[in-house]
Amino acid sequence: MQNVSEPAIAPERDATVKPAPARALVQLEGLKFRWPGSDDDVLDIPELQVREGERIFLRGASGSGKTTLLSLLGGVIQPREGSIRVMDTELSALGASGRDGFRADNIGFIFQMFNLIPYLSLVDNVTLSCRFSKARRQRVSARGASLTQEAERLLSHLRLDVAKLGRRPVTDLSVGQQQRVAVARALIGSPGLIIADEPTSALDTDARVAFIELLFQEVAASGSTLVFVSHDPALQDLFDRTVSLAEINRAYQPPES
Amino acid sequence: MSIYSLTLRSLLNRKTTALLTIFSIAVSVMLLLGVDNIRREAKAGFANTISGADLIVGARSGSVQLLLYSVFRIGNATNNISWHSYQEVAGMKRVKWTIPLSLGDSHRGFRVLGTNTDYFEHFRYGAKRELAFSDGGRFEDVYDAVLGAEVAEKLGYKLGQSVVISHGAGEVSFANHDDKPFKVVGILKKTGTPVDRTVHVSLEGIEAIHLGWDSGAPSGSISAEQARHADLQPKLITAFLVGLDSKLATFTLQRAINNYRGEPLLAILPGVALQELWSMMGVAEVALLAVSAFVVATGLIGMLTVIWSGLNERRREMAILRSVGAKPRHIFVLLMIEAGLMAVCGVLVGVAMLFLTLFAAQPALESYFGLFIGVDPLTVDNLAVLGGIILAGVLIGAAPAYRAYRYSLADGMTIRT
Question: What ipTM goes with this model?
């Protein structure tokens, strides 16, 4: 793959599947980032837009800067240049603490593996994301549920039997079960944006599709937008749209083969 | 659901290391407080060895030396004083009572004190407490002996038993006054002072066993019965205690005795001499406290090591917390609380262990070493020290907390394993 020289609009692959809603949930413009002490940008993205309710597949091989991009979206790091708007909030205009608060309120993360805190119970691992966000707690109570009830509801939707699994240490759960607990944690309190970073890479092929379908169902139920990052192109057909990070990131250096 | 409960659960998850850390802090706290308690008790016990006497009079030497041999039965007098001088001082104005003390012999390692019945009348220890008998009574006959509580207990002596006095003060003596055995007629109650380790006989008894002894060895043989009829008026005594009818006269009389023309005498105030002696021991006391303080520091450094070495494997946990919106300062606080919590638990467990140990060890210390260690409540100073230890624990926790803070800034949500 070559570096894309002209400013590329996020490429549309499956534009016919669903009419895209008008509002942009995530809007990146002229984004540039380099690590401190480095002379080279690792990210240079002229533009990327994710619309509200969209489920997008962000394809990126390792080294394509996806982890950096997710850290920028989460507000953990700041771009050198450019703008990151998530839910109409300009992240680079917020302070570090404000970005942490924004992430707590509006973004749910699911990681590749080891998503759970070993010393917390199944339910406490789910409600963990409400500890740092008043907004999420309020959204849960607006549904007329306690945090525990909501966690149990989500877990049972994700086919996890709290009565059976809840008493055991979470480290006893299978990888697939742990990933579903992570989904429940990301979704509790209905954050606007769910970011999943290779959540299926530790699962076997059969379980992947089932996991993604379950994820879609719950993301839709909570009205969230999904950014799903993976290097595995076999999954991309399940999504509304695919974006190749290698194509939109002008700083991408393809590995020499 | 707060960050405190996260800390608590995180610690519970690592309960073995957490408990060991708390235990090592607890042991160091116990040691520090224990040393302080024993120090205070020793000082109090020290000051309690003699009370009521206004002056101690002996041959001219140092005041600490006089105090040591007359009250603590440690060491020997360099010189004796004459009966005549004793009588002169005893007859001085303002003198209410005197107790003559004649030392130099022993019984199986315990010092023998020759005195008269004024000893049982006027001697006071602790808070002006009188001597009391647990069995029998005062000596009356020349060959009667009254034992201190510890002497009777250690040697298993009962009333009526006979006791042979050895010449000199050593544990093993080659010159025994075995021709003139003494009979136990009284056993004193425990006082927690050197009185417990003393065999008391009359001055006449001391005189009788030394009849015919010149320069420390028997030169002729005089039987016990013959001795009774000899002149048993002592010519020399070692020292004597003086009680006055007015405290105001103390300095006047002290000056009068120190300027006594008949022979060189030294009169000391027991309280002043005790203070002087204690200040000599102050160096050891400070050293002991310093060592304990360093042990506490070691305990806290142990905690630092444990938290620090656990940081790396907890980076994943921190990344997860960051991903759900924890700020780096939450991570900092989490670790600070962890250190503070362990320090607080260490201090509490240490205090509990101290009291349990003191209560448990008290009887053993008393029976094996004759040490009575009272259990004092914590002093204000102790509480300040404990507060200081907790504060130090929290401050020490700031180091790993800061490192975790840096980690969480650098790692962000990236899970490093």
Answer: 0.84
